[in-house]
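Following up on my earlier thread - several people asked me to post the actual chain instead of describing it. Fair enough. Here it is, all 522 residues.
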Amino acid sequence: MKKKLFLYLSILLLSSCASVEKYNQQINKTHNPIDLREDVDYAYKKLVKLHPDVYWYVSKEELEESINKLKSELTKPLTTKEFYNSFAPVFTSIKQGHLSIHVPSIKQTKEQIKEKGKRSSPFHSLSFQASDKKLFVRKVFKGDTTIIEGSEVVKVENENVSDLLDSFNKLHASDGFNKTFMPEFVGSRFGFFYSNTHKQNDSILLHLKLRDSLYSKYIYADYDKLKASTKKDSTSVQNEKWSKVDRRIAKELKKKTRKKNFKYGYNKKTKDYNRNFSFLESDTLIGYMNIRSFTNGGYKDFYKESFAKIDSAKCRNLVLDLRGNLGGRLTEIDDLYSYLTDKEYVFIEKSKMTGRLSFLYPYFHTKSWGTKTMATILSPILGIYQMFKVKQENGEAYFKFKYSKLRKPKPNSFSGKVYVLIDGESFSASSILSTHLKATKRATFVGEETGGAYNGTVAGVYAKVELPNSRINMRVGLMKINAPYQIEPDGYGIKPDISIKKTLNDKDEELQWIIDDIEKLD
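Reply from S.P.:
Thanks for posting it. Predicted structure:
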């Protein structure tokens, strides 16, 4: 029996390794033009099938002309990464910011993972920020501490950063026609775009500039096996020295930390929280709520606690900082908005889809056999669910969120003055929330136009579409989500009442303007 089990596991391991090697060969080889054109047709067919409003910002004629032009130019074999540089600009021309296109990474075999651990990108230890077509190191999370925060990245290997930023700007899009989203998004996601377009290496040379001094540093890929074993060994030694009382105290502290991390949305990489609230030091009491993302953690307790503090302190001014907030959960922004209004409201309209079964597509078209199996087993229940949630109206399918019904404000909703800080990376859920606050004249907006559009977006549930030959994959939003407010012209973000362009210095000019305005009025 043991021999049979060992033989089975050996065959499984060898087939897995062979599958990984075959996959890596496919994404590394050059693909003939016929296969590449087949991928283009496949991508367009899937996009039309799944995306509820492909022609929102581009006409069908314009898009098909670009697609036909791309196909006519595919006359020589290309690698997956080379194809991506031609493919992505055509499909992102639909100007839908949630449509993202990814190049597959080289996979590790189980033996490689066993030997070295799972690999992280060389860029994992840094975050970047772009300004005026320049790239700066925003934060160093770990690794080489000789890379100084605030340094300008002049070159990566032998390529000028300005050239890289220009090329990356063609590989994604905002919602609609605004000009604020892409420069900031490409800067903050520089590592992602570099990895999509360049050969995978374990070390990358950065040429940096700090004031008038130039210096160069390598950044390295991380393998987690050694790091994890070292941490385990040190913890074991420490635990041996602990008494029962020490262990009990440590356990209670760990439990408290876990609760706090859940409430505030702890980010392991950046080692800070998604949600923060404090009172600013000023002559006038000002509540400051900085929401970096509407994801991760138990938001309900955070907002309940924060607005209780505001109410108890009789604070009459609140700053909501949505700069750099790329979005997240509808449930969270609805909960937050219910504290900022004293009127009943409808948060979003019914969400248009291409078909009644569209939202089930991701479950039945996944590489996870477990997910497919569960979806198949539960298909009768899912079928009944979709009958209630997705309705056919005038030949169109609409998903009915509970947020499409009349909602009530919180009993202790804040009635004071609200200021909202926005920038190009205020996107998706941040923009939906901002649309409500702008349309109802509930807040004063300070900063730059949001990257997300005022009139809505396509998001909600996503399908992952893998192209059969190049293995490039597209993430396609399946639901058109609109707030119940619309403006013309369509395709632009929420505009600030007070326009202040963000600068890279230690002084927060946008926040300072708000503080000065509050103190002046009081």
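The chain has 17 helices and 24 strands. That should answer part of your original question.
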